[in-house]
Design brief:
With 493 residues, the protein is of the alpha/beta class. The chain folds into three domains: 255 residues, HUPs (Rossmann fold); 156 residues, Orthogonal Bundle (Isoleucyl-tRNA Synthetase, Domain 1); 53 residues, no CATH class. The chain binds zinc ion. Zinc ion binds next to loops. Monomer.
């Protein structure tokens, strides 16, 4: 088991714009917070990519021996349609349109989120807190900020006073914006808001009469501002200062900027040592958007049921494809890219499986320790998964030469090669070992043949209810049974 002390990870810190050597606040422990999804629709593939980047970071830190507390929240209230504190609550709107309870919306899409992440073999975070479960903590933070004179109440709503805050602490340090430019570029409020200044943001909003999601507070029956939940939950579970805060690039401003301001206002210290941001996912070179049709749901990748792809891909192939880009690079999702990754993925899996058939000798023609070190160096360099994967393919080459007999390996080196490959492919990258022959039809046909046999037995026993049930359930799963003279065959659609 490798130890964290042997490894010096460098992390690109969005706050400083530099790669910095990672030094956790408490030796051996890492606190990491990642902004989770707002659960009002099926999880977007771009979000899956962001969470996957942090899943790999979580896995790698654990692999090095760190004790990691990974907090990823669920936003189930407070996120309005427009980031400037206007519009309907996203969850309440969906509930109104579908004539269901907001909590039904939350439940449906939280389940969807977990299902998709499970398919992609994500590790669950250590804590997954919800905004609605931390209303009291959020109210307490508002009280502190009001006491410090950095917020004001108007008509039952409370706003953070960005101008006042900026007098002593710079607002915009993360996104490299300065307040004067922001003010210059923003429109007047036209008297439509209670805010003193357009840059101010809501800590608490008084609920309109028809707004369902509301809680009592000292100021009004209302709901917390979107940025506040992350400050409340990260402080509660990770402390006033913690190691890593992550999220998608789009959250840098205003969300993360506001988180910094809130925490600084409360505790007079920077809440986060390393800010990390995952880049966007686009499709076929363009922004992914439902409205333009340039869009794919994660489930459609697994079923192949989308015009932008020519076949279904197993989740590990899609995962492998996404990790072939560094988390700070834009990832272009294309059918050709997936097809190429599929080939590479199966080459890697087949090579790992072939290790069991290799007979060691008394000498090695490779320096396995050096190769292993290169794998660690790749991940230590700001979690560079594409470089790591390139190193894994170096091992594939070695394994193929060993198979062909053009190279040799000692027993110890073979063991080291195997444990290292397993560690990086399965534990760190989170891939699942499926071989090209197992992944598709062969595995399926075995199961379907069994069901066809059971159906024949049922028919022989005149149990037509069972035989029809087998046929109908298979049809519902996209498998058609065709009864012919030669027996029953099946087709998939
Ligand atoms: Zn957040």
């Amino acid at each position: 088991m490798p130890l964290y002390t042997d490894n010096h990870i460098k992390i690109y810190n969005s706050l400083t714009g530099e790669k910095e050597t990672f030094t956790p606040i408490s030796e051996g422990y890492v606190g990491m917070y990642v902004c989770g999804p707002t659960v009002y629709s099926n999880v977007h593939l771009g979000n899956v990519r962001t969470f996957m980047s942090f899943d790999v970071i979580f896995r790698y830190l654990k692999h090095l021996g760190y004790k990691v507390r990974y907090v990823r929240n669920i936003t189930d209230a407070g996120h309005l349609e427009n980031d400037a504190d206007v519009g309907e609550d996203r969850i309440a709107k969906k509930a109104r349109l579908e004539e269901i309870e907001p909590m039904e919306v939350v439940q449906r899409y939280t389940v969807d989120f977990h299902n998709i992440l499970n398919k992609f073999n994500f590790l669950p975070p250590s804590i997954e807190p919800t905004a609605t479960g931390h209303i009291i903590e959020q109210i307490e933070i508002i009280k502190v900020i009001l006491e410090k004179g950095l917020a004001y109440e108007v008509n039952g709503s409370v706003y953070f006073d960005v101008l006042k805050y900026n007098e002593t602490k710079p607002y915009g340090i993360l996104s490299k914006r300065n307040l004067e430019d922001l003010m210059h570029n923003s429109r007047d409020l036209d008297g439509q808001s209670d805010k003193r200044n357009p840059q101010d943001f809501a800590l608490w909003k008084k609920a309109e009469p028809l707004h369902i999601m509301r809680w009592p507070s000292p100021w009004s029956d209302g709901f917390p501002g979107w940025h506040l939940e992350c400050t409340a939950m990260s402080t509660k579970y990770l402390g006033e200062q913690f190691d890593i805060h992550g999220g998608g690039m789009d959250l840098k401003f205003p969300h993360h900027e506001c988180e910094i301001a809130q925490a600084e206002a409360c505790n007079d210290k920077a809440p986060v040592n390393y800010w990390m941001h995952a880049n966007m996912l686009i499709m076929n070179g363009k922004k992914m958007a439902k409205s333009t049709g340039n869009f794919i749901l994660p489930t459609e990748i697994f079923s192949g049921d989308n015009p932008h792809i020519t076949k279904a891909f197993t989740p590990s192939v899609a995962r492998f494809f996404m990790l072939q880009a560094h988390y700070r690079s834009i990832l272009d999702f294309t059918n050709n890219g997936l097809l190429a990754s599929e080939k590479g993925f199966f080459r890697l899996m087949d090579a790992i499986n072939a290790l069991d058939e290799i007979t060691p000798t008394i000498t090695s023609t490779f320096n396995i320790e050096e190769w292993r070190q290169k794998c660690y160096e790749a991940m230590n360099d700001d979690f560079n998964t594409p470089t790591l994967i390139a190193n894994l393919f170096e091992a594939v080459k070695i394994i193929n030469q060993l198979k062909e007999g053009t190279a040799t390996i000692t027993e110890d080196d073979l063991a080291l090669l195997k444990t290292t490959l397993h560690a990086f492919a399965y534990d760190v990258l989170g891939l699942v070992n499926v071989t090209s022959t197992e992944s598709g039809t062969e595995k399926l046909s075995g199961a379907v043949e069994l069901l066809i046999q059971l159906r024949q037995e049922a028919r022989a026993n005149k149990d037509f209810a069972t035989s029809d049930k087998i046929r109908d359930e298979l049809a519902a799963a996209g498998i058609q049974l065709n009864d012919g003279k030669e027996g029953t065959t099946f087709t998939t659609n």
